[in-house]
Design brief:
By secondary structure, the chain is mainly alpha-helical. It has one domain. 32% of the residues lie in helices and 0% in strands.
């Protein structure tokens, strides 16, 4: 994994779009990982609590306890 990101500085790493809310990217990554043989696989995905619920809910701890 280091080779994939060794050219990036810390600021660039934090701006990577990791696709935690993109079902196509997640399915593709899962498919690749389950079909990859001979060594371990890892999927890194960044998600935000309350994503798509609006600014009043997004990234707030209360989101996990909110009845919808």
């Amino acid at each position: 994994m280091n080779k994939l990101v060794e050219h990036l500085d810390d600021k660039a790493l934090t701006k990577l779009r990791r696709g935690g809310h993109d079902s196509i990217k997640l399915f593709s990554a899962y498919n690749e990982a389950t079909n990859h043989k001979g060594q371990p696989s890892v999927i890194l995905a960044k998600t935000v609590k309350g994503w798509a619920l609006g600014k009043g809910f997004e990234a707030r701890n209360m989101t996990h306890q909110k009845n919808l």
